[in-house]
Specification:
Layout (H helix, E strand, L loop, with lengths): L1 E8 L3 H12 L5 E3 L13 E5 H9 L9 E3 L1 E6 L5 E5 L9 E5 H14 L4 E2 L4 E6 L4 E5 L7 E8 L11 E18 L6 E7 L2 E8 L2 E9 L3 H6 L2 H12 L5 E4 L3 E10 L3 E2 L2 E3 L5 E2 L7 H17 L10 H30 L3 H16 L1 H13 L6
Parallel strand pairs: 1-2, 1-11, 2-8, 5-13, 11-19
Antiparallel strand pairs: 3-7, 4-7, 5-6, 9-10, 10-11, 12-15, 12-16, 12-17, 13-14, 14-15, 17-20, 18-19
Helix pairs in contact: 1-3, 1-6, 6-7
This protein binds flavin-adenine dinucleotide.
Pathway: Cofactor biosynthesis; ubiquinone biosynthesis
InterPro entries: FAD-bd, FAD/NAD-bd_sf, UbiH/COQ6, UbiH/COQ6_monooxygenase
GO molecular function: FAD binding; monooxygenase activity; oxidoreductase activity, acting on paired donors, with incorporation or reduction of molecular oxygen
């Protein structure tokens, strides 16, 4: 049996951030992942990180090692309707409203930091079963010739909420796919991000190096056709949806992700905690998923660090304290994301007009606009 105090399952961005945070806080952990060491480099996702996430990654000692493109302005609009809202970093006294980074470079930077802290990921080790007892959790895995693992606390960051788990809620299958790629603009983007609500779903253009990272949401049954288009036909489709405010001249190869909202009612169980996409898988609109995950990571680390180094990290009181502290932020992010999709997916004329009015109203009403901007930058800290 291989014993550790804390075992992290999953070395994606969430699990890696937790491993670094715990090591820095003097609570070392063991981290395992089912995939090979190079697999994360194939992650095509590009993430918009909030100002608050940048601060957390800075405290984890990785920010300076990540190539990030600042978002100076966010432009929100809807296709086929009036109204738009503009958010400027300068209005909030911050250098950027957020930053855009490749998930692959984020994981690589976290791996280098973990290495510097004297820890490594145990790759090609798929966890196949957990048996939680009174004092620890027995963890079975796929690695041949290696003994089972055992830990006082297991942190699950395995990237999905299992549909079979009766403690999970599939609140909504959006029947949408996100088609992602990068696209080159004809003129420099100037750090402006566009969030545009179209009749098919939201479209995001995020400044990423000299390009835009594109998240093009379409009905699930239309994504095959979109993926099958040649570059110029795809560009024409993209251009039609974004309108004339940006001219795009080339696009990279595309990848696709099915979208749904699924979350666990409680992010903790017996000697177990779920974080990131394993606790809640959200629609990528407004880029909340990993930002929320990082706040989970920070919250759990603070909770564990508040206990003595010899205290049991899997103690019920600690896990309940963590779950209580995270409740408002989780519910807020789940509700905010889902409400945006539902409000902006209704194509009846009255709704479209109301949305246009709403976007204009938001632009004219500073306190409400500041609330939305702070929600994007800091999550639950947007609340007074
Ligand atoms: C199109 C798209 C755009 C997005 N844009 C944004 C954005 O702009 N901003 C934002 O904040 N979020 C965004 N997100 C969400 C973000 O990508 C996720 O929240 C984040 O990547 C989740 O990371 P994770 O580490 O929790 O999961 P993952 O990245 O899925 O990692 C899970 C890891 O667990 C391992 N694993 C799985 N099962 C096992 C097992 N049994 N044993 C061992 N290892 C296992 C896997 O191999 C993997 O390495 C977006 C998502 C999508 C789909």
């Amino acid at each position: 049996m291989q014993h550790s105090d804390i075992l992290i399952v999953g070395a994606g961005p969430t699990g890696m951030a937790l491993a670094v945070a715990l090591a820095q806080a003097g609570r070392p952990s063991r981290i395992v992942d089912a995939r090979t060491a190079n697999a994360a480099q194939g992650d095509k996702r590009i993430l918009a990180l909030s100002h608050g996430s940048q601060q957390i990654l800075d405290r984890l000692g990785v920010w300076r090692d990540i190539e990030a493109t600042p978002i100076r302005t966010i432009h929100v609009s809807q296709q086929g309707g009036f109204g738009r809202t503009l958010l400027h970093a300068a209005d909030y006294g911050v250098p950027a409203l957020g930053y855009v980074v490749a998930a692959s470079s984020l994981v690589a930077a976290l791996a280098r930091r973990l290495d510097a802290l004297g820890a490594t990921v145990d790759h090609e080790c798929e966890v196949t079963n957990l048996a939680a007892g009174a004092a620890d959790v027995l963890v079975s895995h796929s690695k041949a010739d290696a003994a089972p693992l055992c830990a006082r606390l297991v942190a699950l960051a395995e990237g999905t909420v299992s549909a079979e788990d009766d403690r999970a809620v599939t609140a909504r299958d959006y029947r949408q796919h996100a088609v992602i790629c990068t696209a080159r603009p004809a003129a420099p983007h100037g750090g402006i991000a566009y969030e545009r609500f179209t009749p098919h779903g939201p479209l995001a253009l995020l400044p990423f190096g000299p390009d835009y990272a594109v998240v093009f949401t379409v009905p699930a049954d239309a994504s095959d056709a979109l993926l099958g288009l040649d570059e110029s036909a795809f560009l024409a489709e993209l251009q039609r949806s974004i309108g004339s405010r940006v001219r795009l001249i080339s696009a990279s190869t595309r990848a696709r992700y099915p979208l749904l909202l699924r979350y666990r009612r409680e992010p903790v169980g017996r000697r177990t905690v779920w974080l990131g996409n394993a606790a809640q898988t959200l629609h990528p609109v407004a880029g909340q998923g990993f930002n929320l995950a990082l706040r989970d990571v920070w919250g759990l680390t603070e909770t564990l660090a508040s206990a003595g180094p010899d205290d049991d990290p899997g103690a019920v009181t600690l896990l309940e304290r963590y779950a209580r502290a995270r409740r408002l932020d989780r519910i807020g992010a789940i509700g905010f994301t889902d409400t945006l999709i539902r409000v902006f997916s209704n194509e009846q004329g009255l709704w479209r007009a109301a949305r246009g009015g709403g976007l204009t109203f938001l632009d004219l009403l500073p306190p409400l606009k500041h609330f939305v901007a702070k929600r994007m930058m800091f999550g639950a800290r947007a609340w007074p």
